[in-house]
């Protein structure tokens, strides 16, 4: 059975709630301050580990209290943190989130995440059958080095190009499985997909960004499920009808679950159905990290 290695961001999300947002230069009294472990890398590792995959996180924390708290939380989730370095040069990645009037504003300071480099990822003991996962919240050269290492070892590389940014073709060529939502697909392909419910248009757009014939592009479609272009084959997994209360982290749950299932040796179609079911459970609960399901919960849904 393979393992999941996630090279990515680790953040503390600091959430302030208030009745209304302050105007520029104004101070308002808030109601509550809440602290949530976050960052796409950490969230995806939590999802994979909670589903039973042997999971290693690769990243950087600052030498500060948020770093210490995050290390404790992630360790408690059963994640191997042997490749999470501590750096004195920057503070732990932090997101400052204000929630008011059913809307939020977010300022993310990458801090230590911005210092993840090739030297952090090249030492990772990837083997054939493992899945190497990354996202766009650490520097692109580190992701490229990680995937080069993964491919040399015979591991599967999985990229979630979020938040969307342009990437060099050399990086895309190192990706075996790309998992992205419609907005990110539209951005990468330079196509407006905002009102497109049409499967054919999504497949055409996915085909545009496919740089290798054996590459898989998985487009998550929110409540409509997921559409994958695997080489030339198209696979559609319908979304599950559930009452969504908070879709934060749905994409991270999907990626972590897909990686866990592929590392376990599942075929792509089976792994997509599993990830779709896992993400449909996560949207029925509040928060990102705490909403990730266990394997037993996903199996119960799949019947
Ligand atoms: P992101 O969170 O990255 O924008 P999506 O919104 O596409 O990603 O959601 C990722 C996955 O989560 C979907 O492919 C689907 O499996 C699941 N999902 C998201 N929203 C819902 C929903 N309202 N009902 C059921 N499943 C959902």
What is the topology, as strand order, of the major beta sheet? 5-4-1-8-9-10-11-12-13
Q: Mind summarizing the main beta sheet?
A: 9 strands, mixed
Q: Overall pLDDT, averaged? A: 95
Distinct small molecules bound, one entry per kind: adenosine-5'-diphosphate
The helix/strand order is: EEEHEHEEEHEHEHEHHEEEHHH
Low-confidence stretches: none
**Helix/strand/pairing category:** alpha/beta
Helix percent band: 25-40%
Radius of gyration from CA coordinates: 19 Å
- How many helices does DSSP assign? 10
Shape: globular
Work out the number of β strands: 13
Q: Give the DSSP E fraction (strand runs of 2 or more residues).
A: 25-35%
Through-space gap between termini = 23 Å
Structural overview:
- The structure is a single chain.
- With 303 residues, the chain is an alpha/beta fold.
- It is 33% helix and 27% strand.
- It has 10 helices and 13 strands.
- The strands form 2 sheets. A 9-stranded mixed β-sheet has the order 5-4-1-8-9-10-11-12-13, sandwiched between helices. A 4-stranded mixed β-sheet has the order 3-2-6-7.
- Helix 5 links the parallel strand 9 and strand 10.
- The radius of gyration is 19 Å and the shape is globular.
- Adenosine-5'-diphosphate binds next to strand 12, helix 8 and helix 9.
């Amino acid at each position: 059975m393979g393992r999941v290695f996630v090279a990515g961001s680790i953040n503390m999300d600091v959430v302030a709630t208030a009745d209304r947002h302050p105007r520029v230069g104004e101070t308002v009294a808030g109601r509550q301050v809440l602290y949530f472990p976050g960052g796409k890398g950490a969230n995806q590792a939590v999802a994979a580990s909670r589903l039973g995959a042997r999971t290693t996180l690769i990243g950087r924390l600052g030498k500060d209290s948020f770093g210490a708290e995050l290390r404790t939380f992630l360790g408690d989730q059963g994640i191997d943190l042997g490749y999470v370095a501590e750096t004195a040069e920057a503070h732990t990645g932090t997101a400052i989130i204000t929630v008011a009037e059913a809307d939020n504003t977010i300022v993310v300071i990458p801090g230590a995440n911005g210092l993840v480099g090739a030297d952090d990822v090249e030492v990772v003991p990837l083997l054939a059958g493992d899945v190497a996962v990354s996202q766009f919240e650490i520097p692109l050269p580190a992701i490229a080095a990680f995937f080069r290492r993964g491919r040399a070892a015979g591991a599967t590389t999985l990229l979630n190009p979020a938040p969307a940014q342009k990437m060099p073709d050399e990086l895309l060529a190192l990706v075996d499985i790309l998992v992205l939502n419609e907005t990110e697909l539209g951005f990468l392909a330079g196509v407006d997909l905002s009102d497109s419910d049409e499967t054919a248009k999504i497949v055409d757009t996915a085909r545009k960004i496919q740089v290798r014939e054996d590459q898989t592009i998985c487009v998550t479609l929110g409540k409509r499920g997921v559409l994958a272009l695997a080489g030339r084959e198209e696979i559609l997994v319908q979304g599950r009808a559930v009452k969504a209360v908070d879709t934060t982290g749905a994409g991270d749950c999907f990626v972590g679950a897909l990686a866990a299932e592929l590392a376990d040796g599942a075929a792509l179609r089976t792994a997509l159905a599993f990830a779709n079911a896992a993400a449909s459970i996560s949207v029925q609960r509040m928060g990102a990290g705490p909403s990730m399901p266990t394997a037993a919960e996903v199996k119960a849904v799949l019947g």
